[in-house]
Design a protein that fits this description.
The protein has a domain of 45 residues. The chain is 40% helix and 18% strand. The protein has a 3-stranded parallel sheet with strand order 2-1-3. Helix 2 packs parallel to helix 3. The longest helix has 13 residues. 14% of the residues are buried.
């Protein structure tokens, strides 16, 4: 399967600090990465987005220390 262009990817940005999510989104846009950006303020909300399956997420950027569900716990759920 051919590699998708970074400019066409869907990113999920997970961080409990709104300013951090905005900064990450801005940096990705500056380097022409991402067609769609989804955001979650904690691991629990991110898991709900992932569980829906639509839109398909190509790349997840997550904080480690967040309320409700940490970045590590989110990773374990996604991998199962």
């Amino acid at each position: 399967m051919p590699m998708q262009s970074p400019a066409q990817m869907t990113f999920l940005i997970v961080d409990d600090v709104d300013a951090m999510r905005r900064s990450i989104r801005t940096m990705l846009k500056l380097i022409n990465y991402g067609r769609l950006f989804l955001e979650a303020a904690n691991g629990r909300d991110a898991w709900r987005i992932v569980e829906k399956g639509q839109p398909a997420i190509d790349f997840i950027i997550s904080d480690y220390n967040m309320p409700y569900l940490t970045g590590t716990e989110l990773l374990h759920r996604i991998r199962l």
